[in-house]
Amino acid sequence: DTEVTQTPKHLVMGMTNKKSLKCEQHMGHRAMYWYKQKAKKPPELMFVYSYEKLSINESVPSRFSPECPNSSLLNLHLHALQPEDSALYLCASSQGQGVDSPLHFGNGTRLTVT
Amino acid sequence: GEDVEQSLFLSVREGDSSVINCTYTDSSSTYLYWYKQEPGAGLQLLTYIFSNMDMKQDQRLTVLLNKKDKHLSLRIADTQTGDSAIYFCAEGHTNAGKSTFGDGTTLTVKP
Asked: Measured between beta carbons, which residues in chain B are less than 8 angstroms from residue A41?
């Protein structure tokens, strides 16, 4: 079982819907991440939170809006998505933010945009 | 820029050894990671190696690092059907989230 929990596991939404993805970790990690993964591809970094502050936005469209309510929780708010946004969205955390900090991933939310 | 390359597919028989290879370009890489992704799941850290090491062994897993050739390999001894998955090699980065991943090697283990 992964120590990073993501909900929901699956989500189908229309292009006019608003939905949120949730991620929770209780390992005391201070860095949390959102990744997007297309089939048979490596994960692509979207956002980095460090000590609950957004530190990196990899030029992600504004229809994706991250939020970090506290050190254990990370949300990704979705609005007016496009079909090409369909993918597996992975949350990850790490103890620190340095090169010696391996990433701990959740099992992801499989998103389908219709 | 950084680039990490892996062969895309590997097929082995149950009980054989598997060797998954990875090459990287950033000679300043200090940590190199191996992650495993099973169908329908996220990535799971398998092992990692620090650049001052040539080899690291952890039960059935052996990681070899050739810094001169910038080549990393993961050997799985006595491969089992449960080892079937995608294996990603990754270079650590000063910001952990910006680690560079290879495209992944799909390992298929046949009974």
From this structure: 103-104
Cis peptide before A43 (omega within 30 of 0): no
Which tokens belong to B3? 């680039």
Residue B34, Cα to own-chain centre: how many angstroms?
4
Kindly report, residue by residue over B15-72, the tens digit of the pLDDT: 999 999 999 988 777 899 999 999 989 999 999 999 889 999 999 999 999 999 999 9
The distance from CA B29 to its chain's CA centroid, rounded to whole angstroms, is 15
- For residue B11, give Cα distances in angstroms to A29, A33, B45, B71, B90: 37, 33, 22, 21, 21
Structure tokens at B48: 């990692």
Q: What is the pLDDT of residues A14-28, one digit of tens each?
A: 999 999 999 999 999
Q: Cβ atoms within 10 A of the Cβ of B78, count?
A: 11
CB B90 within 8 A of CB B102: yes
In 3-state terms, chain A is what percent helix, strand and coil (to 5)?
Answer: 5, 55, 40
Question: Which chain A residue has the Cα nearest residue B37?
Answer: A107
With beta carbons under 8 A apart, name residues in chain A contacting B103: 41-42
